[in-house]
Amino acid sequence: MARRLDPWIYIKMIFTFVPGISIIYYGIEIIIQRNVWDFFYSIIFKLIDKYGTETGTFLDVAEKFFYIRFNPADVWIGVLMIIIGCLLFLIGTILLIPDKYISTKYKLVFEKINSKIETKTVMVTLLSIILFSSLFYLFIDFNEPISHLHSFKQTEVASNIHFYVEEGFKLEESFFNKNIDLKMFSYPLYHWTAAEIAILSGLDVVQSGRILNILIFIITFILFYKLLSYLKIKELSIVLILLMFAFSPLGLYFYRAVHPDPMAILFTFASVFLFIKYESEDKPINILLSISFGILACLINNPIYLIGFISIIFYRIYFSKTIKGLFQKDFLIYSSIIVLTVVYYTLTFYKFNANATNGMQYLAPDFIFGPLVQRIELTPYLLLLLWNSFEVTNPIFFVLAVFGAGLSIKSLGKSSEKANAIFIGYLPGIVITIMIFFHVFQRHDYYHLSFILITSFFAVYGFSYILKKLAESKNNRSVIVSTLLIIIFICIQFLGLALLKIPTEPEKEVFEAGNYIQKNIDKKSFVFYTMSPDNEGWNPTYLFHTRRIGYNISLLSLGKEHYMESVISRHIKDFDKFYLYVPNDYYLTDPQLFEKYKLFKTFDLGRIYRIK
To answer: What is the DSSP letter of 52?
Structure first.
């Protein structure tokens, strides 16, 4: 009897029962003890302790990433693990039961359930549930101040929105911080739109910036649905792709942030979609709109559109079957306008205007592109891997996306599917863009926002291949197992989101101190904000919350002779009074440093001195 046992039974048991029972056990343990952090990351931190050095290694980078980014929702992780474990156990049981003992009626029931998804009514219902559920998440803590993660960028943008509301629209950027008066970082279409919302609605500039990105999220979700439908992707795949997009941890963070990149992503994918429509329908209006959206995307963020631009190049070559397709009149017009836009923006908007308004100061090329040595170091690539496998999606789906991309590339020559051509075109676009703009991509995770749809497509492509192989077996249990795998797929998506709940907590002390300053110091006053022991910087976070123009100042600068007087002399014509704010921690460091100033106010968080 033992000789007649199918060896696949043991493999099925290893890959279903063992993980299923283990996942259920640890899920229960997490709910009881709430030790998810130790459970998931103990191995990582053991490696860090063993191999990390004082000078810093790629493991130190991993440690910093997990401590800053991760805020696990312990109970939900436990619940989801129990559900996934039970489903795996159920699949294992079904696989072990001989097919002849599984009633055909069960197969018919599950086939009926799967076929229902293909109906338009059910699909629209599912997509509506996904959209409104993600919107609910986006509106959580909507009225909270800007969170500490990427507060620098968010308060920089919010400061500009504030001044556009107060002083009218212009190309020059304005900040509360006068340490370094840099301007013209980017084309301010997002800022102008948010300012207009604030003016019309009476919302605070942070709320108007958030509501704009939530509106952009809705439009982007609909655009992606239209794009995927146009590419004739199956209904179930569309639902799963949009589920992954809607609940990407990175997306859910930045589509509620005060940030211009979501607008550039919308314009990029709209431009690509319209170009595809032009290729298929040959309507000039489509390529004109594609060019228009491309121009706007380039002005807002060049690297984001470069990914789409390279994908369009690949698409044109693939379907024209020759590189000569790039030299046809329509494509030459399109590409020339896009390239000229980038050149014009770089030379005119960025370099010339920045030089003129900033006294010949502008960001050094290394800030955007990074030095060549970065591209041959290990640590930057670890960061790229961490962001894409934990924030864009989760590690399981990241591996599935790599698998799906390989399958898609393999089938490209045998298939005329537009979806394969356009999404495979995004892959060299991603690689080329990262290698050109290396520094910003390995420094800022929000540059990876445009990867969410692409990663989602390939993950679902790989998953669909697995479902297809199951369907080919044509037995009674294959459709049941497929349905259970779809449920596991959905659970894993939410398990990844629960694991990586990117913190949205604001820097409450900075916000509350700013509120106090607003109430006690009038708008015509200049504020020195003590922000560090030895470094001034021009981080706009501190003074944005005060909504007062001023200077970031360090304890080191305060101790310098005539330093304060030199700053005051430059601004005395524009301000009636000058104040110094000192948080308690910095005051206690050296109380004697402030004896020469007149105490104006004392409160829980610090002291305000009158300087002049």
So the answer is: -
Nearest to 453 by CA among 206, 287, 269: 269
Contact 492, 67 (CB under 8 A): no
- What element of type H or E holds 353? helix 353-358
Residues 6+ apart with CB under 8 A from 453: 224, 241, 245, 269
User: pLDDT digit string (tens) for 334-355?
Assistant: 999 998 888 776 666 555 444 4
Q: Judge contact between 455 and 388, C-beta under 8 A.
A: yes
Note the pLDDT tens digit of each residue in 97-117.
Answer: 776 767 666 666 666 666 777
Exposed, middle or buried, 6 (CB in 10 Å: 0-12/13-18/19+)?
exposed
Query: Are 557 and 586 a contacting pair, CB within 8 Å?
Result: no
Tell me the whole-structure pTM to 2 decimals.
Answer: 0.90
Counting beta carbons within 10 angstroms of the beta carbon of residue 399, is it exposed (0 to 12), middle (13 to 18) or buried (19 or more)? middle
Contact indicator for 34, 74 with CB cutoff of 8 Å: yes
H or E stretch covering 206: helix 205-230
DSSP per-residue codes, 104-163: HHHHHHHHHHHHHHTSHHHHHHHHHHHHHHHHHHHTTTTTSPPBSTTHHHHHHHHHHHHH
Of residues 217, 91, 18, 136, the one with CA closest to residue 491: 91
Q: What is d(CA 372, CA 385) in angstroms, rounded to the nearest whole number? A: 19
